[in-house]
Amino acid sequence: MPRKLGETPIDQMPTFLKKLALVAGALAIPIIPFIIWGHDLQEAADAWQQSQSSPVVMAIVLFVLLAFDVFLPVPSSLVNTIAGAKLGILTGSLVCFGGLCAGAALGFGLAKMAGPAIKKRWLQDDDAMTLRQFADSWGVATLVITRPLPILAEAAVVLLGVQDLAWRKFWPPVLLANGGIAIAYAAFGQVAADHEWLVIALAISAGFPLLLTFLARKWLRARSQETPT
């Protein structure tokens, strides 16, 4: 097919190939620093692993980071992986579980109290609209589905808080989802630390959830456009 004036080779690619290229590129981004600085990063990770930081101090710091995730640009998946690597599966899971639950409760409670002001501050208009439609269909299951997704996890908590969801309906899905997330990432972190590929594990735990969030947002928005208002 002849190329149109001003059209690039990328423009001529079929839609599915564009999406495939986008996904491949997004998956490669977290690995690029390791390819370039892999040796130095691995040495830094080994030195960090051998440091004598107090486990209690480490647990407190990680808990606080997760508890204030709604206010801070903290990649919770990365924090959870570090917790497993530094504290082990059991302690790391408990710290992550407590921090994730505290953070979710804080965002939900503030949204219930402040209502529209919190919604306007923390929710983009597109996210608010698509999540509202999704929540209308899935109810409190929205909390479980969005829990592993950065940005959307906090957005769902705030949205349902603004909609004045009861605490008794909020806790079961949040406890269930946070428990699974905490155990999975803590185990991932400990296995990575034991086998000395922590740098790759941290890159994956930071990048992959962001990719999932990107894809989920596109899917939600496409779904909201197909759903009659």
In brief, what are we looking at here?
With 229 residues, this protein is an all-alpha fold. It has helices spanning 9-12, 15-28, 32-50, 55-67, 76-87, 89-114, 116-122, 125-138, 141-146, 152-162, 167-194, 198-226.
Task: Tell me the layout of helices and strands.
Blueprint: H1 9-12, H2 15-28, H3 32-50, H4 55-67, H5 76-87, H6 89-114, H7 116-122, H8 125-138, H9 141-146, H10 152-162, H11 167-194, H12 198-226
Helix pairs in contact: 3-12, 4-5, 4-6, 5-6, 5-11, 5-12, 6-10, 6-11, 7-10, 8-10, 8-12, 11-12
What does this protein structure show overall?
The structure is a single chain. By secondary structure, the chain is mainly α. It has one domain. Helix content is 80%, strand content 0%. The protein has helices spanning 9-12, 15-28, 32-50, 55-67, 76-87, 89-114, 116-122, 125-138, 141-146, 152-162, 167-194, 198-226. The longest helix has 29 residues, at 198-226. It is globular and about 45 Å long. The two termini are 39 Å apart.
